[in-house]
Every structure is written in C-alpha cells, then in structure tokens.
Amino acid sequence: MAFITLETDKLKRNFNYLNKIFRGNNIQWSVVSKLLCGNRDYLKVLLDMGITSFCDSRISNLKMIKQLNPEVETIYIKPPAKRSIANVIKYANISLNTEINTIRLLSEEAIKQNITHKIIIMIELGELREGVMGDHFMSFYKQVFNLKNIEVVGIGTNLSCLYGVLPNHDKLIQLCLYEQLIEARFNKQIQFVSGGSSVTIPLIFQNLLPKGINHFRVGETLFLGTDVYNNTPYKKMHSDVFKLYSEIIELSEKPAVPMGEMGVNVEGHEVEFDDNQIGQTSFRAILDLGLLDVDEQHITPVDEQISFVGASSDMLVIDLKENKQNYKVGDLIEFKMDYMGVLRIINSKYIDKRIKN
C-alpha cells in the first residue's frame, strides 16, 4: 500500500517560525487544518504542539477537533449551508458569513442551543469568491447587530483562492477602513480584522501589511513552507513535512510506443506519440497509486531521472529509462507534493497515513 508520512519535527519548526513572526507583529493566527481531512492522528500532532485555534471548511473535521479537545477555538471558514446550521452552531465557535438570511438562521439555532455564536463578516475585495459587496456593507452590518445570540467579532476578506488576485497594501487598507467605519457608525468594537492568509505573509517581511490587520488564517505555508505569493519555498522553512511513498508492483523493459488501434484512455484523452520512438524501449514501472488517489501533476518524483508515462484509476506508470538506479519490484519511489497533492492523498482512504518522529 502507498503511504504518506508527516514529520512532526519539521512541522514543529515551521510552526515556531511562523508563531515568532506573528507574535512579533501583534498578530493572532489560526491554523487552517482542512489539508488534514479530519485525520485523527494528524490533528493530535497539531494539538500536541499547543495550537489553540483551528479553521476548517468541513464540519466533520471541526467535530473531530472538538472530540479531541473541546476547549480549542474552531472557525468554520465558508458561508454555512442552511442544512448545516445546527452543526455549525454545535461545532464551530466562529463562522465566516456573507448572507443575512443565513445569519438569521444561525441566530435562531444559537438561541435553541443557548449559545452565543460569533461571526466574522467577509467583504468582497476583488477575488469574487465569498464576500458582501462594499455598497451593501454598512446596511448588512446594521441588520446583523440586531440579531440575538450573535456576536460580530470580525471583518475579513479572501484573496488569491479563486482567480489568484493577490493581496497588497491598498486592498488591505480598504479592509481596515471598513472596520473603522463600522466601529464609528455603530459604536461597536471589532476584535478581528482577518485579512491575512498564507499568501499575505510576504507583506509582513516587506513592511507593507497595514497595522490594522490583526488576524491570519494560515494552512499551506505552515504545512509546506511555501511563499504562496511568489510560489517559492521559504528558505527558513521545511517544504517536505509530508512525503509520499509508492511501491513498484511491476518492472519490465517495454516498447516506448503502444501497439494496436488507438482510442481514448480512461480519462477520455487521445494520446499521440512521436514516430521516432517506434522501436525504442525503456524500463517501465507500475506503482500502487492511481488517479483515484492523486493527479500526477501535483506530485514530483524525488529521483529527477524518473518521468511519468501515464495513469489509470489505481495504477501509475513511470519511465525509469535505463534503470541506472537498479530499481526492482518492491522498492519504494518517493514523491514531493504540492498543496493539492497532499490534500488529495490525505483524503484518499486507500493511502496509509503515518507519522515520523
């Protein structure tokens, strides 16, 4: 069975590095744990590190976190679905919201459960994902302040996740100005200006982050050591907290070009080959990993001599060329992964999850 490992020592060093940066800039931050797909063992690693605030977009993941430690703060980071209202109130201390009718339902359910539910209202700053349009923002807040068992604790925004709109000083200044307008208009204190995510971290180093931004929601940079803004690794962080291993289940020298009438493959694609490859051979290996588990574009062999040939639902074929490394059946091939690769692998129930250190 293919398996993924989480190296706790490297993750701890990434956490300490980020924690020092945020504390030095008077910023609170919450760990976005959705990458872990509610895996109990991996979540326990985070809890053992002393993390006390978790963000997730799946209620089942928040439920697992609360089962492990009911005292930690949980934040539901997408607008709640109406059919999920009761569980949002039950398992999330805070939720991000953009719809007034949804917040009314949260209020009604919070009254039933005798809970004061906290919300962060998201504003649209150009990414065109979730967010209240600026023209309606003041009237939106006015309606929310009148609802029972609802406490508005923050204003927030999302950038870069849909179209890749990058955060900059001007956009985040807009967010801070909205917060100031709300406080002045309604005589209310807004605790969090949640304008930060992994992609916003470089603005701290460049001294371009407005002082009003005091809350970050961070996942990718913690787990992968990635400078998301520039799509490069941070030199002082570990990019290999997670590693993927897949076993060779067949290895043979085979022709470079298939033989027979060509149709479409399992993904519905027509594959073309260079006629110059006819008559050539190379060593090919089949791995116990497939499209059901991950898309090959999100994983990279550590051995740079290995290239992908193709994949089906449960098997991945790689080209070992002359097999100078003398791979054999039963050997493990190690892969690096990007964010979507790790997410897909951890979400696959067919991949074993292991912890190192």
UniProtKB/TrEMBL annotation:
Domain Alanine racemase N-terminal: from-to ranges: 8-225
Record keywords: Isomerase, Pyridoxal phosphate
Superkingdom in the source lineage: Bacteria
GO molecular function annotations of the record: alanine racemase activity; pyridoxal phosphate binding
InterPro entries, sorted: Ala_racemase, Ala_racemase_N, PLP-binding_barrel
Pfam families linked: Ala_racemase_N
Signal peptide segment: none
Cofactor(s) of this protein: pyridoxal 5'-phosphate
Membrane-traversing stretches: none
Official protein name in the record: Alanine/ornithine racemase family PLP-dependent enzyme
Species the sequence originates in: Carboxylicivirga sediminis
